[in-house]
Amino acid sequence: EAEVAQSPRYKITEKSQAVAFWCDPISGHATLYWYRQILGQGPELLVQFQDESVVDDSQLPKDRFSAERLKGVDSTLKIQPAELGDSAMYLCASSSSTPSATFGSGTRLTVV
Amino acid sequence: GDSVTQMEGPVTLSEEAFLTINCTYTATGYPSLFWYVQYPGEGLQLLLKATKADDKGSNKGFEATYRKETTSFHLEKGSVQVSDSAVYFCALRRGNQFYFGTGTSLTVIP
Question: Per the CB < 8 Å rule, is B102 touching A104?
């Protein structure tokens, strides 16, 4: 069964440092999503790509967060500088024409 | 705007008890509806889906029926097991946008 790959699974970083997460969606899925999930809450959309284009980044804190999907395949989400409040699970998901989205296992970020 | 509201947790049940987790939605048009399940430290896994009114999604003993008249998609299972302990998220999709509820934590005790 096809999966969405994410790395790393866990990341501990110091406040003010830079951190990056990687996502490889299911092959052929044109739509890629990055979500942030704070403990005890539902996922919140950070950015959505259609192929290599950003279609929604209205909730992305652009002063410190950036995301790219250069060739319309894998994607990187970066935070610089990291703040204590960025501690969360970062989830990547992808979808195609089928109704559901498939999620990766996520990256658990802890900022100390 | 579009949104999903699901019942507050946590929910604690004994093994073999009946489960209902309520979910209602607000959306224009005809969204697709989903239940996802999340185990500790993992991502979300699709549990079941329904794409039009009166559709019933089912998987692993769980069921939910798309009720347009009540804008609901309640999750049910007749006999829960300890292995069902997880967080359950109701979600809708309209176009390429997904909207998630806040999640309901379920603990099943032997």
Answer: no
First to last CA, chain B: 41
Name the minimum distance, in Å, from the CA of A93 to any CA of chain B: 9
- Which residues of chain B make contact with A103, given a CB cutoff of 8 A? 36, 43-45
| pLDDT tens digits for range B21-45 | 999 999 988 899 999 999 988 899 9
Of B49, B43, B27, B77, residue with least CA distance to A98 = B49
- C-alpha distances in Å from residue A103, one per residue of A33, A110, B10, B37: 9, 20, 24, 11
Candidates A41, A103, A106; nearest CB to B102: A41
DSSP-based three-state secondary structure for B83: helix
Q: Answer whether A108 sits within 8 Å of B41, measured CB to CB.
A: yes
Helix/strand/coil (H, E, C) string of chain A? CCCCEEECCEEEECCCCCEEEEEECCCCCCEEEEEEECCCCCCEEEEEEECCEEEECCCCCCCCEEEECCCCCCEEEEECCCCHHHCEEEEEEEECCCCCCEECCCEEEEEC
Of A75, A33, A76, the closest CA to residue A55 belongs to: A33
Q: List, for residues A26-42, the tens digit of each pLDDT value.
A: 999 999 999 999 988 89
Residue numbers of chain A with a pLDDT score lower than 50: none
